[in-house]
Amino acid sequence: MIPKIAIVILNWNGAKLLNQFLPSVIEFSKGNDTEIIVADNGSADESLSLIRTNFQEVKILDLKQNYGFARGYNEALKQIEADYFVILNSDVEVTAGWLESPISLMETDKSIAAVQPKILSYQQKTHFEYAGAAGGFIDEFGYPFCRGRLFNELEADHGQYNDTIDIFWATGACMFVRAKSFRDAGGFDADFWAHQEEIDLCWRLKNMGYRIVYSPESVVYHLGGGTLSYDNPHKLFLNFRNNLWLLYKNLPGNLLFYTLLVRMILDAMAAFKLLAEFNLNGIRSVLKAHFHFYISLPLLNRKRKLTRPPKHSKLPKEMIRISIVYQFYLRKRKLFSQIRVG
Predict the structure, then answer these.
(1) In sequence order, which residues have a C-beta less than 8 Å from that of residue 255 and are 6 or more positions away?
(2) Which end of the chain is more exposed for a tag (fewer CB within 10 A), N or C?
(3) pLDDT average, residue stretch 46-54
């Protein structure tokens, strides 16, 4: 039986991006049971009229208001019936055959809950893109990084990551996810609003016994910064706050205090770096993130009881037990291959 695939693009005032990137999605996603859906987060621009006029093969799901990324997808996906969801940013150009390998992997192995394709830069197509690159990992203090991208250092793609492997997290820029697994895990944590909600979801899926896999045969090009630029103060706030939430919700109890203590020190160092750069908005973002973390502890405690399996004390093996900050800044290791060999 042919599986039903729903490609779901969450949009907010992105008419320009839709006009630029939807054509490739339509061209390379034709199939017997594949549906393209734009879920609109209450846009005030001409997004909906553009789709109705120029892309009539695309279904519109009007959410009426801006729910943010995490809740926006939750609200949309609960209204969609499919075997697999393809969560796709509006600023992604897809290529021929991009659907086949990820869906085939999940069809042949029911332990795989999510798959990420190779994410290359739309602006520099020879290089990996920041959000996902060749598959996401996380260090022992919660810092996300990717094969092909450590912090802001992006590698050229020479085929060095053309192996299908298990990863820690798949990017929300382009994530293939089994619909049942997504729902069983409770979907995205809507309180995250945006940023790192996909890492939280993948960690919960791993705690449930599922695998997350990278598939290099599927290639897409991501523009990046389509909603918030990478240096935006609100984006910085969300990344710092959500990363602390991520750790508190998912870490085993025997590692929680130590890991958070070290993170407080590292975040203080980041704040001093921002101060040296006279980035006052950045410092405010870090301080605001920590304030929100502290006042959220009662809520996080409740979520933690739901997220952590009883007596579960193991970390996923893709949580690499090194400090990426130490490796990158002090040992000057800029490539994932250098990190992996220790």
Answers:
(1) 315
(2) N
(3) 98
HEC sequence for the chain: CCCCEEEEEEECCCHHHHHHHHHHHHHCCCCCCEEEEEEECCCCCCHHHHHHHHCCCCEEEECCCCCHHHHHHHHHHCCCCCCEEEEECCCEEECCCCCHHHHHHHHHCCCEEEEEEEEEECCCCCEECCCCCCCEEEECCCCEEECCEECCEECECCCCCCCCEECCECCCCEEEEEHHHHHHCCCCCHHHCCCCHHHHHHHHHHHCCCEEEEEEEEEEEECCCCCCCCCCHHHHHHHHHHHHHHHHHHCCHHHHHHHHHHHHHHHHHHHHHHHHCCCHHHHHHHHHHHHHHHHCHHHHHHHHHHHCCCCCCCCCCCEECCCHHHHHHHCCCCCHHHHHCC
Of 276, 262, 296, 90, the closest CA to residue 192 belongs to 296
CATH 3.90.550.10 residue ranges of the chain are: 1-90
Specify which residues 277 forms β-bridges with. none
List all residues 6 or more positions away from 289 whose beta carbon is below 8 Å from its beta carbon: 236, 237, 238, 239, 240, 241, 244, 267
pLDDT of residue 342: 47
Compute the CA torsion angle 43, 120, 140, 267 (nearest 10 deg): -50
**CA–CA separation, 38 and 200 (whole Å):** 24
Is the pLDDT at 339 greater than 90, yes or no?
no
Which two tokens mark 135?
A: 């598959």
Topology of domain 1-90, CATH: Spore Coat Polysaccharide Biosynthesis Protein SpsA; Chain A (3.90.550)
The pLDDT tens digits for 24-34 are 999 999 987 99
143-154: b (≥16 Cβ within 10 Å) or e: bbbbbbbbeeeb
Q: Give the number of C-alpha atoms closer than 13 A to the C-alpha of residue 122, restricted to the C-beta side.
A: 20
